[in-house]
Amino acid sequence: MVSELQIWQWLEEVSDPEIPVLTVVDLGVVRSVKTNGDQVKIVITPTYSGCPAMQVIEEDIKQVLKFKGIDQVEVELVLSPAWTTDWISEKGRIKLKEYGIAPPADEVDKSVLFADPPVIECPLCHSTDTRMISQFGSTACKAHYQCNSCLEPFDYFKCLK
Amino acid sequence: MNKNLFEYLLRLGDDSLIIGHRLSEWCGHGPILEEDIAMTNMALDFIGQATTIFEYAAKVENTGRDADALAFLRYEREYRNVLLVEQPNEDFAVTMVRQFLFDAFRKPLYEALQNSSDTQIAAIAEKSLKETKYHLKHSSEWVIRLGDGTEESHEKAQYAVDTLWRYTDELFFENEVDAALQAENVIPSLIPIREEWQKTVTDVLTEATLSIPQNGWKQQGGRTGLHSEHLGYILAELQYMQRAYPGMKW
Ligand SMILES: [Zn+2]
């Protein structure tokens, strides 16, 4: 019989298919792990409703655990409580930055129109002289920024609350 | 099966599916690259919401039809979306005004549905609301930019408001389905939601220097399956693969 702690450690080997530097644990999409004899039940939650990564994540979890000798894995997708960017781990935030994606910052209320976008530090040169190019970026969870100092474009993992 | 609940889920799901499909039509045709990406991002949110809603609807119906069958294998008259969401994209102004009129409705609706006595509906609303806030901010800002922009953008935005206004009344359509579900606290009354919609729309259109049409003539039908000619064309495209190759998967 395998411990829940062991399963959590193994889940650290499952990376997010779109941001491979993050594990599904870093991202905060794994909500719970329960073992019952040889059976393992894992509850995950999507980042965005249409996140195409969820099916891949489910398959990857099963595959990694199968490789560890666990065959009876049930993965359940729950919507509530809804995922927020606050659930990205501290370790995950550091990894994001090193990878070149600015981690989520606190943002102003979205009901305020034309509010200044949050000041985001360039993950490459650390300048705070950056500008938002687009609220919507390469995936649902990212906005597109550009650094005015080193001129490099970069992704910002936008705040979802 | 709870027929009223199933019917209501089709309304929610079909609104999301069809407006998501309309937004996806901009893929590769956006006026600027950033908007192309924004519209397809939003399309993905809507299709994702529709998937979750249809999965639940399939469970409620409990006849073996799955979410894909609900999305792709119904006939036109079985779709329950409002006429507003099936209206053609025309130009960017029409698309953004249509989006704004819809987002301004969806936000207070999801806020209220978070308190649904049906836990799955509450969960879907809680999840979708976070995305909807981004959508409403985006579409509101564009309506203001276009309305209060150049002479040409103002003209196009006003045309969009004038053309689409007749379809807004149907957002607040209610019948015995709503009454039954409201009695069980599954869904809210649309009266306070309409008030909030009215306020958002008035604030944004005023800021955009656009005038609110006074014409009282309203078009309805979608909620009861009577659609404009446009839905048939959408379905022809949406359902082509499943009709040509029944049961195909990839
Ligand atoms: Zn820089």
Automatic annotation (TrEMBL), chain A:
Listed InterPro entries: Fe-S_Maturation_MIP18, FSCA_dom_sf, MIP18-like, PaaD-like, Zn_ribbon_PaaD
Occurrences of domain PaaD zinc beta ribbon (ranges): 112-158
Domain of life of the native organism: Bacteria
Gene3D superfamilies the UniProt entry points to: Fe-S cluster assembly (FSCA)
Domain MIP18 family-like: 6-76
Residue stretches spanning the membrane: none
Coiled coil regions in record: none
Pfam family, one: FeS_assembly_P
Annotated protein name in UniProt: Phenylacetate-CoA oxygenase subunit PaaJ
Organism lineage string: Bacteria, Pseudomonadati, Bacteroidota, Flavobacteriia, Flavobacteriales
From TrEMBL, chain B:
SUPFAM superfamilies: Ferritin-like
Entries under Gene3D superfamilies matching the protein: 1.20.1260.10
Stretches assigned to coiled coil: none
Pfam family, one: PaaA_PaaC
Biological processes per GO annotation: phenylacetate catabolic process
Cellular component, GO annotation: cytosol
Protein name in the entry: Phenylacetate-CoA oxygenase subunit PaaC
Organism: Taishania pollutisoli
